[in-house]
């Protein structure tokens, strides 16, 4: 059974956390997109770019997701700043 | 209904022509072309790089086009968005909509651009005399998309 998440970071957030992606074992007590964000924001330097109050958007399995959306092992979760295409 | 995310430029005339090629029911083709400007937020811009989220980008654009197709009677839609390195004057995005009458073509074209601006995962980084910087999202873009009402799925994690 797959117990890992794939987490992606884009644009200024990718630069702040110093990586574009990682495989992560689903941490204990993390059941939503918002809880994963809080877990990552607590990692220390650079990761505060994900802290509450920062303007961060998220996607779960390549669809925009709210903080309260549930996550499961095997998911692809992405964090990024508000989009600026067009 | 067709979406492309590509580094290459595109031929606006050929794309517009293709929207009504081989059919006689099209009465109105509306199109939008977005270009790289040489200035933004008080600084000159010498180059731009567009980052995107491969996979989600195509899916988001396809969903936006599908939603436009539910709201208006459309005969053909084409969306092309470039990524990678771009210079001022270069084309970034094309939206073309074919319908029977101009009302739905104009409206759907604007709708697709407004949703693309706030939903499609692209990020612009521009080169200025003060250094490279990520472009900030505009509040006016959120307002522009708000006038179309909800799309039936969440836009943000906050």
Automatic annotation (TrEMBL), chain A:
GO cellular component, one term: molybdopterin adenylyltransferase complex
Keywords: Nucleotide-binding
SUPFAM superfamilies reported in the protein's UniProt record: MoaD/ThiS
GO MF entries: nucleotide binding
One GO BP: Mo-molybdopterin cofactor biosynthetic process
InterPro entries named among the record's database cross-references: Beta-grasp_dom_sf, MOCS2A, Mopterin_synth/thiamin_S_b, ThiS/MoaD-like
Family label: Belongs to the MoaD family.
Name used for this protein in its record: Molybdopterin synthase sulfur carrier subunit
Lineage per the UniProt record: Bacteria, Pseudomonadati, Pseudomonadota, Betaproteobacteria, Rhodocyclales
TrEMBL record, chain B:
Alphabetized UniProt keyword annotations: Molybdenum cofactor biosynthesis, Transferase
EC number: 2.8.1.12
Pathway entry: Cofactor biosynthesis; molybdopterin biosynthesis
The organism's place on the tree of life at top rank: Bacteria
Enzyme category, top tier: transferase
InterPro entries tied to this protein: MoaE_sf (IPR036563), Mopterin_biosynth_MoaE (IPR003448)
GO BP field: Mo-molybdopterin cofactor biosynthetic process
GO MF annotation list: molybdopterin synthase activity
Subunit structure: Heterotetramer of 2 MoaD subunits and 2 MoaE subunits. Also stable as homodimer. The enzyme changes between these two forms during catalysis.
PANTHER family: MOLYBDOPTERIN SYNTHASE RELATED (PTHR23404)
Name recorded for this polypeptide: Molybdopterin synthase catalytic subunit
């Amino acid at each position: 059974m797959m117990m890992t998440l794939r987490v992606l970071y884009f644009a200024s957030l990718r630069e702040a956390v110093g990586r574009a992606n990682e495989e992560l074992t689903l941490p204990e007590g993390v059941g939503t997109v918002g809880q994963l964000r809080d877990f990552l924001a607590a990692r220390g330097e650079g990761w505060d770019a994900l802290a509450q109050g920062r303007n961060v958007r998220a996607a779960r399995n390549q669809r925009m997701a709210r903080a309260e959306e549930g996550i499961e092992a095997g998911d692809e979760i992405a964090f990024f700043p508000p989009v600026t295409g067009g | 209904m067709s979406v492309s995310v590509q580094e290459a430029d595109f031929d606006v005339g050929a794309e517009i022509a293709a929207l009504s090629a081989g059919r006689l029911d099209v009465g109105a083709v509306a199109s939008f072309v977005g270009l790289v400007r040489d200035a933004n937020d008080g600084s000159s811009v010498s180059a731009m790089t567009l980052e995107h989220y491969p996979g989600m980008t195509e899916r988001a654009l396809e969903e936006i086009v599908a939603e436009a197709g539910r709201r208006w009677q459309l005969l053909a839609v084409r969306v092309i968005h470039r990524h990678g390195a771009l210079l001022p004057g270069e084309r970034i995005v094309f939206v073309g909509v074919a319908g029977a009458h101009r009302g739905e073509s104009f409206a759907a074209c604007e709708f697709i651009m407004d949703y693309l601006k706030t939903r499609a995962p692209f990020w612009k980084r521009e080169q200025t005399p003060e250094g490279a910087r990520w472009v900030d999202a505009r509040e006016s873009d959120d307002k522009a998309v708000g006038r179309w009402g909800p799309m039936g799925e969440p836009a943000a994690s906050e």
